[in-house]
Design a protein that fits this description.
By secondary structure, this protein is mostly helical. Helix content is 80%, strand content 0%. It is built from 12 helices and no strands. Helix 3 runs parallel beside helix 5, helix 7 runs antiparallel to helix 8 and helix 10 runs antiparallel to helix 11.
């Protein structure tokens, strides 16, 4: 019945928010018995398995979602992330590219796609992906920092420095940005700035 399903789903979400994925999985499995084609529950089951260190089971659930709805943004995104962790970069990139086409306002998907593009040395594409992520979420410190890495790789130290400074302004404890800023100042021979 609907009330029972809603209760199971709600309990699963509460446990997932509190990072108790074993318990979340337990309630999701009961919910999926009631509504076997519910894409939200299937996707959440995939995430529970991913968080429990069972990526093959996670992939299985995400693919079940896509069999029902090939344009499900979260399942596409989650498959992209799982394949990225498996170092299956082309598969990861395909799923992340599909995600940003389906849901163009998904900042984390643009950021993750930028990370892959950076690995593929597609610096101009990575730059655009990071810029889009920042446009969508102006407080996205990691996107700002990684944009700086792209500018650095493109031999544009001034824009890189600007990005690292913006990252630190957003998150004053972002160690990577301090490290990158110090590195770039050292490369430029500005040792006093590198130390500060």
């Amino acid at each position: 019945d609907t009330n029972h399903f809603d209760s199971l789903s709600l309990l699963a979400n509460i446990f997932a928010i509190n990072r108790n994925f074993d318990k979340a999985k337990e309630f999701l499995e009961k919910a999926i018995e009631i509504q076997p084609k519910n894409t939200t529950i299937l996707n959440n089951l995939g995430t529970a398995y991913k968080e429990l260190g069972k990526p093959k089971e996670a992939i299985n659930f995400y693919q079940k979602v896509l069999e029902i709805d090939s344009n499900h943004p979260n399942a596409n995104f989650n498959l992209g992330i799982v394949f990225y962790k498996f170092k299956e970069l082309k598969k990861a990139k395909n799923y992340l590219e599909k995600t940003v086409k389906i849901q163009p306002n998904y900042a984390l998907a643009h950021f993750s796609l930028g990370n892959l593009q950076k690995e593929f040395k597609e610096l101009k594409k990575a730059k655009l992906s990071y810029l889009k992520a920042i446009e969508l979420r102006s407080d996205f410190a990691s996107a700002q920092n990684n944009l700086g890495l792209v500018f650095s790789a493109m031999d544009d130290p001034q824009n890189a420095i600007s990005c690292y400074k913006k990252t630190i302004k957003i998150n004053s404890k972002h160690a990577g940005a301090y490290n990158n800023l110090g590195r770039i100042y050292t490369e430029m021979g500005e040792f006093k700035k590198a130390i500060n």
